[in-house]
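Dear support,

I submitted the protein below through the web form. The confirmation email said the job was done, but the results page showed an empty box. After a refresh the structure appeared. I'm attaching both so you can tell me whether what I see now is the final result or a partial one.
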Amino acid sequence: MRDTRESRLLLVLLIAIAFALITVDIRAGEESPVDGARQAAAAVFGPVEAGVATAVDPVANAIGAVRDSGERHNRIATLERENAALKAKLGSEDQTRSRIHELDEMLKRAGAGQYGIKGAEVIAIGAAQGFSWTVTIDAGSKDGIERDMTVLNGDGLVGRVSTVGPDTATVVLANDPDFTVGTRLEKTGELGFATGQGDRALSVQMLNGKAKVNPGDRLVTFGSRGNKPFVPGVPIGEVVKVDPSRGDLTRTVWVRPFVGFSRLDIVGVVVMPPREDPRDAVLPPKPEAPKPTPTVTVTVTPSGSAGAPAKPADD
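What the results page shows now:
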């Protein structure tokens, strides 16, 4: 439609008629003269509106589903984070309990031997290649650590301090092939020298070739002059094999160390030796052998048959 004077007058007239009809419809209420026209319009445009609504609803539902999916994803992600945090906390608590147990056992050993110790944590391990078995601890000269001090944990002898820095120190482990320590057999006091064999049992040369040694016997450190590098009485291990005696001056036995060198964590450096040799006091009590269950033997005496004649009575 072109913008002319007539078209403008027509537009104004239509607007006036629309306002007049709205006024009449409002004042008449339910008896409005335009109610029939409204119903006719509803009959015509109703199906169209329903179709449009049907076409639009899936889109709206999809949008709502995406929005809800995002909320569900966020809730799932939150739950997963909380679950991971809970697992980490439980794992941390398990590790904490394990370390507390290790520390408690180490303090028991130190108390039994009257060793003054400085606690430390293993922070690095040396390469096992080339038969080098060492660990690094987070204590050094600032903490009173010196070279050739004995290192132990709750299980027994770990090794000796080889080098010391201001804040850290290197410990040669007892299973290193270059490691040698004097040993004393529990109860009998037979002496020997233990040498590391890597991941195998320690080799111990008993000075007495005729010494009576049996699997299950235990050994402790004999101690060094001036208590360096070894203080006396630290548990070493348990005999697992005894080589047959061939009349030699010495005898070889194989000892499984008490310490697990591949899982070291908390250790103690002996900074103050005991006033006297603790002998076997640091060794834990041996578990008692189970008592044999008594066997009950039942002897059944056969009785005479029912059909046998009875023995006549004496007159």
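Response: this is the final, complete result; the empty box was a page-load delay. The first helix runs from residue 5 to 28.
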